[in-house]
Amino acid sequence: MSINYGFCEYISEIAIKSMLLEVAATPKPGLVDRNNSGAHKDMDFYTFMESSASQVYTFYNCALEGLKFEGKENKELLNIIRPIGIEGENKMFNATRGINTHKGLIFSLGIIAAAAGLQHKETKKQKMDIDDICHKVKDIAEGIVSRELGKLDNKDSLTYGEILYKNHGIKGIRGEAESGFSTVRYHSLPIFRELMKGEGNLNDNLVQVIFHLMTITEDVNILGRHGVDALEYVKSKAKEVLALGGIFTEKGKKKILEVDKDFIYRNISPGGSADLLAVTLMLYLLENYS
Ligand SMILES: CC(C)(COP(=O)(O)OP(=O)(O)OC[C@H]1O[C@@H](n2cnc3c(N)ncnc32)[C@H](O[C@H]2O[C@H](COP(=O)(O)OP(=O)(O)OP(=O)(O)O)[C@@H](O)[C@H]2O)[C@@H]1O)[C@@H](O)C(=O)NCCC(=O)NCCS
Ligand SMILES: Nc1ncnc2[nH]cnc12
To answer: Could you provide one GO biological process annotation from this protein's UniProt record (predicted)?
Structure first.
């Protein structure tokens, strides 16, 4: 079987482009962007640049494993790409001198890269069918919540995601992947597609979409740091911004800057929504290959 290594290069290129354009989108409340570092004292715009650049082979190799896959069930692919993702996390920590900028996003984009490899193996096309990609993501992540979060009693130190599942049944990033990124597939991506047909520029369209994401994302970063009340607060603020027209009106822009200051003061960082914004862009780029 001849392997199209050029396809893997392409997947890596657009995954890293999604990471870079997400952090560059400005202004994003409580998040690192070109204005400020949001509710983060340990990272800035350049930390995200360095982290993104360190992931070239993570997504290349995930796509390659999808292309090469000869297993019976797509869920077998998760254990094949997991070590690649863990190596990617190590490269991230090395590049950022120990700061977690993209642990979640490496997981999300890595699974999508593998799903893209699976599809390309079937179709030999670079223009991707996104519904099929999300279906393949669901297959690859099948059972991850119960398998990884269902048995935590003997674990010593738990992550935010593990604590939230144990105490509240919050599924976090694993639930999102197991659903085939349904928040993106059925909510943020259709909105982004429509915005990209309009007059708005890429930056403003990305900013507008993160506010739509903030109204519905079960954001583990917010829940982990502050709890449910803070998540409801974030959702209400995002709705207020959108009700004023968001980035596309002067009143909306003014409100966004106020909310950014407010989230920084409250140490609120919607990192989960930021990751889903990058996933939204990745899927958009996959279906708009030219
Ligand atoms: C599968 C794992 C990635 C799971 O790791 P973990 O147990 O930590 O999972 P969660 O706690 O559930 O969330 C992990 C990160 O996922 C992002 N996220 C949060 N909510 C959502 C959501 N609803 N949907 C999608 N993604 C979500 C978020 O990541 C982003 O934020 C992090 C940076 O923000 P920060 O606040 O600084 O984060 P912390 O430093 O953790 O908090 P503080 O101490 O500062 O307060 C950054 O990671 C962003 O990406 C969540 O943090 C992992 O266990 C795993 O298996 N990894 C191996 C790799 C792998 O399997 N790869 C597969 C193919 S490559
Ligand atoms: N721009 C951003 N700021 C803070 N955390 C993030 N996680 C992913 N993107 C982020």
So the answer is: prosthetic group biosynthetic process
Q: Is 100 in the pocket of ligand 1 (CB under 6 A)?
A: yes
pLDDT of residue 63: 98
Can you spell out the DSSP letters for 63-98?
A: HHHHHH---SSTTHHHHHHHHHHHHHHHHHHHHTTS
Assess whether the C-beta atom of 31 lies below 6 angstroms from ligand 2. Answer: yes
Q: ipTM of this predicted complex?
A: 0.93
Question: For residue 112, what are the domain limits?
Answer: 5-287
Q: Which residue has the tokens 């997981």?
A: 107
Q: What's the total number of domains in the chain?
A: 1
Q: Give the pTM.
A: 0.97
Q: State if residue 271 touches ligand 1 by the CB under 6 angstroms criterion.
A: yes
- Kindly give, in sequence order, each residue whose CB lies less than 8 Å from that of residue 252, ignoring residues fewer than 6 positions away: 241, 242, 244, 245, 246
> What's the 4 CA to ligand 2 centre distance in angstroms?
32
Cβ contact 119:3 at 8 Å:
no
Q: Torsions phi, psi of 159, nearest 5?
A: -80, 170
Q: How much distance in Å is there from the Cα of 106 to the middle of ligand 1?
A: 9
pLDDT class for 2, splitting at 50, 70, 90? confident
